[in-house]
UniProtKB/TrEMBL annotation:
Protein name in the entry: Reverse transcriptase domain-containing protein
SUPFAM superfamilies listed in its UniProt record: DNA/RNA polymerases (SSF56672)
InterPro entries: AlkB_hom8_N, DNA/RNA_pol_sf, RT_dom
One family name in Pfam for this protein: RVT_1
Native species: Gadus morhua (Atlantic cod)
Membrane-spanning residues: 231-252
Gene Ontology molecular-function annotations: 2-oxoglutarate-dependent dioxygenase activity; methyltransferase activity
Domain of life of the native organism: Eukaryota
Limits of the Alkylated DNA repair protein AlkB homologue 8 N-terminal domain: 199-240
Span of domain Reverse transcriptase: 2-135
Keywords, comma-separated and alphabetical: Membrane, Transmembrane, Transmembrane helix
C-alpha cells in the first residue's frame, strides 16, 4: 500500500505546496526543522534587539493530533479549497474511512472496530494530510479554527526570555482552566533552547550522545575493521550527532562548548588513524548549503533576509544590535556567503 501512497503523495505536494502557509516547514521540499527553529529564533532575537523588551514563548502541544482528522471535513473544507482534484480527494476520503483496527497482546486478539477518524500511524500520507488539515490554523485571520484539535495543557510550556535589568514577573497563562507551567529550557524540534539563549545545555546533550557512540567505534577498532568502513561508521553514527541542527547553535556557542565537541573529533581521529573534517568546516558547509536552498525558494519566509545589493556582488547585512542576534543563523550565513564570494 505504501508503494501506491508515494505517487499520491508526490501528486498532492505538487498541487498544495505553493498554497500552504509559508510558516509551515514540516514535510515540504527543501525545508527542514532547522528552518523552523531558525525563523523562530530570528523573530525572537529581532524583537529583543529593541530596548526594554522581553519575549514570552509558548510551546503548544496537541493531544493525539493525527487522530483528529475527519475525512469528510478534510475533503470539503481543506482539499477542495486547495484545488485538489475531486477524484484524488474522494480516494483520500475512502482511504481514511471504514478502517478495521484491533489490538493484539500475545496470542490474544481483540474484536475489530471500524474507524473513520484519524490517519493510520506509519502511513506515508499522514504527515502531509495533517498539514493540509491544519493549514487554516494561522494567527493572521479571524476565521482561525482549531477543528477537533485539543490543546494538551499538561504538556504546553511557557519560557520567558527577559534580559532587562529590572524584570517584572509575568502574569501566569491559564489554558483549559489549568495554569501553564514555566520552564528554564525546552527541547524544541530536537534542539534544547534555554531562556538565556545560550547553548551550553544543548551542547551537553550532543556531547553525551556522541561519547556514548564512541564506544562502538572503539569496538570496531578492536576487530580491525578497514579504515574506510570506520570512517563511514563515524560519519553516519557520530558526526551526524555532532552536527545535529548545527546551523542553529554553532555560531553562538562559546569557545569552550565548541572545544568540547572538537575533542571528540580529535579522539575519533586517533581511533581511526586519519584526519576528519573539523566542526567549524562542517558548520560552514552546512550553513552555506542551507542558506542557498532558502535563497532559491522565494516562498520561504527567510528568503527576504538574503537581499543582494545593487552591485550584485554581495548580500546586504541583516541589521542587528546585539551579539546574540548577530551570531544567529541569518546574519551569520549572510556573512559567510559574502566571505565566500570575496575569496572567489
Amino acid at each position: 500500500m505504501k508503494s501506491f501512497e508515494r505517487p499520491v503523495l508526490s501528486h498532492l505536494k505538487s498541487i498544495t505546496d505553493p498554497l500552504l502557509d509559508p510558516m509551515q516547514f514540516a514535510y515540504r521540499a527543501n525545508r527542514s526543522v532547522d528552518d523552523a527553529v531558525n525563523m523562530a529564533l530570528h523573530f525572537i532575537l529581532q524583537h529583543l534587539d529593541s530596548a526594554g523588551t522581553y519575549a514570552r514563548i509558548l510551546f503548544v502541544d496537541y493531544s493525539s493530533a493525527f487522530n483528529t482528522i475527519i475525512p469528510t471535513l478534510l475533503l470539503q473544507d481543506k482539499l477542495s479549497q486547495l484545488h485538489v482534484p475531486d477524484s484524488t480527494g474522494r480516494w483520500i476520503t475512502d482511504f481514511l474511512s471504514d478502517r478495521k483496527q484491533h489490538v493484539k497482546l500475545g496470542k490474544h486478539v481483540s474484536n475489530s472496530l471500524t474507524i473513520s477518524t484519524g490517519s493510520p500511524q506509519g502511513c506515508v500520507l499522514s504527515p502531509l494530510l495533517f498539514s493540509l488539515y491544519t493549514n487554516c490554523c494561522t494567527s493572521s485571520h479571524q476565521s482561525v479554527k482549531l477543528d477537533n484539535l485539543e490543546l494538551n495543557a499538561l504538556k504546553t510550556v511557557e519560557m520567558v526570555v527577559d534580559f532587562r535589568r529590572n524584570a517584572a514577573p509575568s502574569s501566569p497563562i491559564t489554558l483549559c482552566d489549568s495554569p501553564v507551567s514555566t520552564a528554564e529550557s525546552f527541547r524544541f524540534l530536537g534542539t534544547v533552547i534555554s531562556q538565556d539563549l545560550k547553548w551550553q545545555q544543548n551542547v551537553s546533550c550532543i556531547t553525551k550522545k556522541a561519547q556514548q557512540r564512541m564506544y562502538f567505534l572503539r569496538q570496531l577498532k578492536k576487530f580491525n575493521l578497514p579504515k574506510a568502513m570506520m570512517v563511514h561508521f563515524y560519519t553516519s553514527i557520530i558526526e551526524s550527532i555532532l552536527t545535529s541542527s548545527i546551523t542553529i547553535w554553532y555560531a553562538a556557542a562559546t569557545i569552550k562548548d565548541r572545544s568540547r565537541l572538537q575533542r571528540i573529533i580529535r579522539y575519533a581521529e586517533k581511533v581511526i588513524g586519519c584526519n576528519l573534517p573539523s566542526l567549524q568546516d562542517l558548520h560552514a558547509s552546512r550553513t552555506l548549503r542551507r542558506a542557498r536552498k532558502i535563497m532559491l525558494d522565494p516562498s520561504h519566509p527567510g528568503h527576504i533576509l538574503f537581499k543582494t545589493l545593487l552591485s550584485g556582488k554581495r548580500l546586504g547585512s541583516v541589521k542587528t544590535k546585539t551579539s546574540r542576534h548577530k551570531n544567529s543563523f541569518f546574519p551569520h550565513a549572510t556573512g559567510l556567503i559574502n566571505l565566500f564570494k570575496k575569496k572567489k
